[in-house]
Specification:
The protein is globular. It has about 325 residues and is mostly helical. Helix content is about 70%, strand content about 5%. It has one domain. It has a 3-stranded mixed beta sheet with strand order 1-2-3. The C terminus is likely disordered.
């Protein structure tokens, strides 16, 4: 199978996960929603300002930027830039689900929270895939048969020109299971209600993480990442160098699932006694993430215009 066929398989898997995810959570997740035992907390004026700014300034700003990235890359067909476009679209959809859940349902909709987290998972996975494609096709030239791999002077011999095994493939064969082993970090974390109630400029706000959300982030997603890592490893092992392209796709999807799980684990377990900062740092981190992607896209756009001034940016990837 070629890359496009593997892309379709991954797309189908992601769509199936989007449809079945809420049913899986309801079937095997904890029965308690975690809404009892609210602990009251007093918020300082600075904390109330930070909460309000993150919700109504920072979040809308990075949503707008992510949509701008989608528009800027709409006509690009380069594998890495097309992946970034799809990643930003998934991010935009997920964050709008988050905003709707917060403003309308007061973070009580499991379906909207699942769409939110799933959008982040897909976004992370596609960004990782875009980075791997960019380094492969623009830096290392590993998969391009007509170009010399940049590591050839270091390796001495290359699988493209002689019957030798690729050292980069051996490195990746080690990296994949090591990454999979990191899934044990969130999987061994304990679950528990960590809910607090505070007053933000006269409005009662609940901070924390219900059990169902915790189950989704540190149980379901880490477990779901393991089949992707297994497929990535097997493709490299059995198909050797020819399996590297497809292996990248499955590895990136696994990293997307595990990466989001680790991010939530880091914030919510690190700030479990003061969850308002978990939420705020997540918003700030997402803003920084989108800002970096936006800056890279602008640089790519500028370079494309310099290299192809007559054709213009819109057709640079065609």
């Amino acid at each position: 199978m070629n890359h496009k066929q593997y892309h379709r398989i991954v797309l189908i898997v992601m769509l199936v996960g989007l449809v079945l995810g809420p049913f899986v959570i309801n079937a095997i997740g904890p029965t308690s929603a975690g809404n009892e035992d609210l602990t009251p907390i007093n918020l300082t004026l600075i904390e109330q300002i930070v909460i309000t700014a993150a919700a109504f300034v920072v979040k809308p700003l990075y949503q707008i930027i992510s949509l701008a990235i989608v528009i800027l890359l709409w006509k690009r067909t380069d594998p890495d830039l097309a992946a970034i476009r799809r990643a930003m679209l998934a991010f935009f959809i997920g964050e709008n689900a988050c905003a709707l859940n917060y403003l309308v349902f007061h973070e009580g909709s499991l379906l909207l929270e699942f769409i939110h987290t799933y959008g982040m998972v897909v976004c992370f996975g596609l960004v990782v895939y875009a980075l791997m494609e960019a380094f492969d096709n623009r830096v290392f030239n590993f998969s391009q048969g007509e170009k010399k791999c940049v590591l050839l002077p270091l390796c001495g011999r290359c699988y493209k020109y002689s019957e030798v095994r690729c050292n980069l493939r051996y490195i990746f064969l080690m990296v994949v299971p090591v990454t999979a082993a990191i899934a044990l970090v969130p999987l061994t974390a304990s679950l528990g209600n960590k809910l607090y109630a505070g007053n933000v400029f006269g409005n009662a706000v609940v901070f924390g993480h219900p059990l169902l959300y915790q189950f989704l982030e540190v149980r379901l997603y880490p477990w779901a990442s393991l089949p992707f890592f297994a497929l990535s490893f097997l493709l490299l092992l059995l198909s050797k160098e020819s399996g590297f392209g497809a292996s990248k796709i499955f590895y990136a999807m696994g990293v997307g699932l595990l990466g989001f799980s680790l991010m939530r684990f880091f914030f919510y377990w690190g700030y479990q006694k003061n969850p308002l900062w978990a939420d705020r740092w997540e918003e700030i981190t997402e803003f920084l993430f989108i800002a970096v992607v936006f800056w890279i896209v602008l640089r790519v756009r500028a370079v494309s215009q310099q290299l192809e001034p007559k054709r213009g940016y819109s057709s640079a990837g065609s």
